[in-house]
Amino acid sequence: MDSSSLSIGQVAKGAGVGVETVRFYEREGLVPAPKRRPSGYRQYPADTVRRIHFVQAAKELGFTLREIRELLSLRVTAGKKCADVRKLAHEKLAEVDAKLTELQRMRAALAQLAASCTGKGPTSECPLLDALDAQGDAHVHR
User: Fold this and answer.
1) What's the structural domain count of the chain?
2) Tens of pLDDT, residues 26-52
3) Quick check: pTM over 0.70?
4) Residue 37 lies in a domain
5) What is the CATH number of the domain that holds 58?
6) Cβ neighbours of 66 (radius 10 Å)
């Protein structure tokens, strides 16, 4: 094995992920399929660790595996511009904003329900549980 190729264990250790994660990323097309030694062992190029770090960083920003594949392809596709990447980033930002709005709505509703409960009495008389029951009934009758 030449000095610029890594075993799957070396890639996993260098990237701070498990061996199964490396295999998963390979199956998902996020890491190119490596060459194999005559023994069948995978030989990954040294830049595989950097690529996995890229995938992890993109995941932390909320990009899906499909979106990460698209980001990776933008880097190597002729004729693509930074504006193409910017467009994807703005689309993800709009998704995050929508999720934040929904989380704020959920928080406000939960805070209101929690405030309605004094914490006293039996659960059969709990206003929070009653409110959830009423909302559940409303969903059933839609």
Assistant:
1) 1
2) 999 999 989 888 888 889 998 999 999
3) yes
4) yes
5) 1.10.1660.10
6) 10
Mean pLDDT of 126-135: 85
In a domain, 61, yes or no: yes
Residue carrying the six token digits 């030989």 = 43
Residue 139, in any domain of the structure: no
Q: Which helix (H) or strand (E) holds 132?
A: helix 127-140
Per the structure, the complete domain to which residue 85 belongs is given by 5-115
